[in-house]
Amino acid sequence: MKLISNFKFLVPLQSRPYSYLFSISYFGARYKGWAPQPNQQTVQRRLERVLRHVMGHEDFSLIGASRTDAGVSCIGGYVQIFLREKVDYMNTLLPQFNEHLPQDIRLNSVQEVATDFNLIQSVTQKSYRYYFTNSLSFHPFASAFTVNVPGELNWEAMKEACKLFIGSHDFKGFCKPSENKTDYVREVLSADIFTSKEFLGQYFPEEIYYFEITGTGFLHHQVRMMMSAVWQIGSQEIKLTEITSRFDFPDRFEKLPPAPSNGLVLWETLLTNL
């Protein structure tokens, strides 16, 4: 399986030997995720449109370090672009792209990388933040950035649940399974809940929190289902023991509802081989 994946990655390298790495941020509310979909506005599709306009041709290819779902935002992501010819106007490339990108997508930096640089294989870890509140009054304007979880929550139990996620576990019970996937083991390096100071204003609740999780890689809907489980622990809908039981016997349990996408942010992506 890995050989096929590597072969697909090498095709653009062989025909387009010049490669550039961009760091990217975007607000995901208007997009149906990262990857192109028929008749849908996605982040990659919007990037490709701007690239065609700025460079005046379609002779390029690109890949992203993460394929975020619809509505998910990104602070610290990366995209790699492959070209047939070297770019001599590197100092003006970034402002040209940003001039034509919508305001909810920004390329933050750019650097030329070696021909054999593999973005996907260079990702060593990712961090996500999920923003939520537990407020009696919740303004609709705040819903673009955070999710309100009503009712009384046991915060101590929720933080204990976070600790149980740390380590290497079979996360099949905390993701959207695929018929073609057999390996659901992923390593979580840290997981906890913190108080956020990033959202201030009359439309935001006084207390906003975020669930922050760092790992070497994540499965489809994994972070959102973990967030959902933490909330259910907090509201005493399920017990802490269900977390570990889902690791050992994932097929015995009903699928967890994923938390809404609008609270989730890809916060940081760490790379090696640069």
Automatic annotation (TrEMBL):
GO terms for biological process: mRNA pseudouridine synthesis; tRNA pseudouridine synthesis. Substrate binds at Y128. Residues 161-268 form the Pseudouridine synthase I TruA alpha/beta domain. The active site is at D69 (nucleophile). Its EC number is 5.4.99.12. The keyword Cytoplasm does not apply. It catalyses: uridine(38/39/40) in tRNA = pseudouridine(38/39/40) in tRNA. Keywords: Isomerase, tRNA processing. It comes from the Bacteria. Signal peptide: none annotated. One of its GO terms (cellular component) is cytoplasm. One of its GO terms (molecular function) is RNA binding. Belongs to the tRNA pseudouridine synthase TruA family. Homodimer. Formation of pseudouridine at positions 38, 39 and 40 in the anticodon stem and loop of transfer RNAs. This is tRNA pseudouridine synthase A. It comes from Algoriphagus aquimarinus.
